Known about the structure:
The chain contains eight helices and 20 strands. The chain has 372 residues and is α+β, with helices and mostly antiparallel strands. It has two domains: 5-244, Rossmann fold; 252-368, CATH 2.40.50.140. The strands form four sheets. Strands 7-8-9-4-10-11 form a six-stranded mixed β-sheet, sandwiched between helices. A hairpin with a 2-residue loop joins strand 17 (327-333) and strand 18. Adenosine-5'-diphosphate binds at residues 28, 33, 51, 53-59. InterPro entries: AAA+_ATPase, ABC_SmlMolc_Importer, ABC_transporter-like_ATP-bd, ABC_transporter-like_CS, AminoethylPonate_ABC_PhnT, Mo/tungstate-bd_C_term_dom, P-loop_NTPase, Transp-assoc_OB_typ2. GO terms for molecular function: ATP binding; ATP hydrolysis activity; transmembrane transporter activity. Residues 19-250 form the ABC transporter domain.
Amino acid sequence: MLMKTYTAAPGTATNTSGIVLDNLRVAYHDRVVLKPLSLTIEPGEVLALIGPSGSGKTTVLRAIAGFVPPASGRIFMGDRDITRLPPYKRGLGMVVQNYALFPHLKVEDNVAFGLRARKLPKALTNERVQQALKSVGMVDFATRYPHQLSGGQQQRVAIARALATKPQVLLLDEPLSALDAQIRHNMVEEIARLHRELPEMTILYVTHDQTEALTLADKIGIMKDGSMVAYGETHALYRQPPNRFAAEFLGRANILGATVLELKSQAGETLVSCGGTLVNVVTPGILHSRNKLLCVRPQHITLHKRSERSNRLDATLKSLHWQGDLTHLLCDVAGETVRVVLTQLNPLPQAGDRLALWFEPDDAVLLEVGHV
Ligand SMILES: Nc1ncnc2c1ncn2[C@@H]1O[C@H](COP(=O)(O)OP(=O)(O)O)[C@@H](O)[C@H]1O
Ligand SMILES: [Mg+2]
């Protein structure tokens, strides 16, 4: 099932910074790369768009920014129809992956660029530049040139440049993907802080990094082949992914064949056979067929019983990878491989050992067979 509508009626966002996409469709040379997408981004919300390369994430952003005209559909900011507005009139800031700073301009002039283009008075321009540089911790670098900065610093300047115009909506297209892991981690924290300081700013954050999305976003949309195949509040989407693609894209997931035997309670507790073993799963949705996939995340499996409701799967340890903080176990459960991630394991089991794997009914989810 493809979900296509995630929207209130167009124009119903309550202030000027919410975005509404109404059946937005984009084609390049007659090839549709974004299938009709309806989506509401609430004012002040951080929405992360994730998905594999080529799935259409940048296209959504470029359409909202006004760099690519939609083949059909409309784009609203608050109740303003901005579909045909030129980019500079939309009140948006955009940051892309490769910084795109002007190499011949000092940091302060890069940040001032958009303000000067708007012919803001000089004193106000200087004040805004200082403010923007301060918000990304780059005041001391104002007179340097981009080549005198590290990648992380350049990206901070790019963010400052986008913030200087005080956009109502900030579009970020893989802003951290050119940076190395440690700096990326720090920058994610900084973007989170920035949003705490500017809570009214709506942020659309494109990334292929699920950790960035999980850390920053209020809501996540997952793109595949030009469609949004999953959408929801970050925590709920992680806990209850609607399909296999979402489950596997947003973290690691064990996916096992399962047959539904009985709906046991109004609360959705369902008895399922998994490789001949009976387990209980809490399923909020309606079950249309008996054949399902059982999804349970590696870190939700333990080697001990946690409650009276705990489910048990009998397993044989195939291999073990100790990584200091974490230990990864690969187990065989009735011919299927199950990954377990544990934080503490003492003593370490050996390959070939028989293990009991335990998980709670509400730490598992039933998915439809098929990928999306
Ligand atoms: N300027 C363009 N001309 C033609 N095809 C494009 C252009 N930009 C992107 N595409 C195609 O549109 C699809 C979606 O691209 P994009 O939105 O950049 O994906 P993502 O950001 O998820 O990697 C891809 O198949 C890509 O090749
Ligand atoms: Mg892209």
